[in-house]
Amino acid sequence: MPLALALVGGLVGMVVGALAWAFFLQFTKTNFFFLGALPGLIVGFGVLIGSGGQRRNLLLALLAGALGLFAFFLALYFRLSLIFADVLGEGTNLFALPLGDYFDALKLYLQDNPINYINFALAPLFAALTAFNGGGRWSRRR
To answer: Cα–Cα distance between 61 and 118 in angstroms, integer?
Structure first.
């Protein structure tokens, strides 16, 4: 049961983290490399909360890492959709970019923003480390 709840927590964290990063990128028009870890951190905490606070569990860390990688791609999909929606005048449509065009748009976006290659590694790494270590000192009870 903790694995299923950890998956649900991670999926919620994945969507929340992807939305947070995409909207930050959209509104600031600035890509800070350290913010690529944000979706990973949120996914890691989602897995951790869903599992009931289980720490030092390799399976949960691997689950969080995989979801962190998906969060990275989901955030960039949302970001590219927001750009596409701006061009079309559709406001903040998170699904304005057709899925068939995603990888072509992603390739162009990554060429213009190579810092995201670092985020490609940071998001799953931070997700896995957060889930494995239990958030470090943030989750320790006093």
So the answer is: 20
> Where would I find the H helices in 36-142?
37-50, 58-88, 102-112, 116-133
User: 40 to each of 5, 63, 117, how far by Cα in Å?
Assistant: 18, 12, 14
108 contacts: CB under 8 Å, gap ≥ 6: none
Counting every residue, how long is the chain? 142
What is the average pLDDT score of the chain? 88
Q: CA 97, 102, 104: angle at the middle one, nearest 5?
A: 125
Return the pLDDT at 142.
39
- Asked if residue 3 has pLDDT above 60, the reply is yes
- Contact at 8 Å (CB) between 69 and 124? yes
How many Cβ atoms sit within 10 Å of the Cβ of residue 86?
14
DSSP string, 64-92: HHHHHHHHHHHHHHHHHHHHHHHHHT-SS
pLDDT digits (tens, 9 = 90+) for 72-125: 999 999 999 999 999 888 888 999 999 999 999 999 998 988 888 888 899 999
CA–CA separation, 96 vs 135, rounded Å? Answer: 35
